[in-house]
Write a structure and sequence with these properties.
It is a multi-pass membrane protein. By secondary structure, the chain is an all-alpha fold. It has one domain. The chain contains twelve helices and no strands. The chain is globular, with a radius of gyration of 17 Å.
């Protein structure tokens, strides 16, 4: 039996190979820079397969990859502060999931491209929140990130920008971020499952694409240290910008 025999009926071998290639590139970016995988994967993958399918695919892959990191994060995190932001995710994730489930694919792709472009600008700005703690602000940041995660699995930049700017030890900030996304991914899994976005097709593709993504992460990690962090981040920013442009629906007749 060939690989094509295992693919969902709406996914050709060409599409599966394209998703694997995109996963490898985004995984490599994640491995050497620590961020950017979703911002690269979603615009490109949504241009070759349905946004609902690729968002569910990325969620399953990330959920499995992040699970082993959660026990250590639980021990090191400021669980009380993280719980406030997680409350925001509980609000934002279902809303984002709802829009993903009802919007037309082309409309969703435009939103994803605009979101990723805005998040790239946020990353380039180097924004860090250094003001006072406010419960309403924490809930708002969590809701924004949750909405981005529910709609397109791109909730990273707001949370990272918020926690890295707080006056806490880096190890605690990292643990808070990991713990937040563990909860956010769980909410997304529940929301996606109840709306039918977690399907046989997305699970089958995760078995095929997931290992390629893992290889990309490993390969990217092996590159770390061969150049400065500034160079690696610059490369990742360029890849994200290229993904945004290449994923624009207006270019479908040109690039695809």
């Amino acid at each position: 039996m060939s690989l094509a025999d295992f693919l969902p009926k709406d996914v050709s071998l060409t599409i599966a190979m394209a998703l694997c290639a995109i996963a490898f590139v985004s995984g490599t970016a994640r491995g050497f820079s620590g961020f950017g995988s979703a911002l690269i994967f979603m615009p490109l993958a949504s241009s070759v397969a349905a946004p609902r399918l690729v968002a569910a695919l990325l969620l399953v892959i990330d959920f499995i990859a992040a699970a082993p990191l959660l026990p250590d994060a639980w021990r090191k995190a400021d669980r009380r502060a993280t719980a406030v932001i997680v409350l925001g995710a509980l609000i934002g994730v279902p809303v984002g999931t709802y829009f993903l489930s009802v919007l037309e694919p082309v409309t969703t792709r435009w939103i994803i491209s605009c979101f990723v472009a805005a998040l790239l600008l946020l990353l380039l700005s180097g924004w860090r929140y250094r003001g006072k703690d406010h419960a309403w602000l924490s809930v708002g940041i969590g809701s924004l990130s949750g909405f981005c995660s529910g709609l397109a699995q791109t909730g990273g930049p707001p949370i990272v920008g918020y926690w890295l700017g707080r006056p806490v030890a880096p190890i605690v900030a990292r643990a808070n971020i990991l713990l937040y996304f563990g909860a956010s991914d769980f909410f997304s899994m529940v929301s996606y499952a109840t709306t039918g976005l977690i399907s046989r097709e997305s699970l089958v593709l995760s078995v095929i694409v997931g290992p390629v993504y893992a290889i990309g992460v490993t390969f990217g990690a092996s590159l770390f240290g061969r150049a400065s962090e500034k160079v690696f981040r610059g490369i990742c920013y360029v890849l994200i910008a290229m993904a945004v442009v290449a994923g624009l629906p207006v270019l479908d007749g040109v690039l695809r």
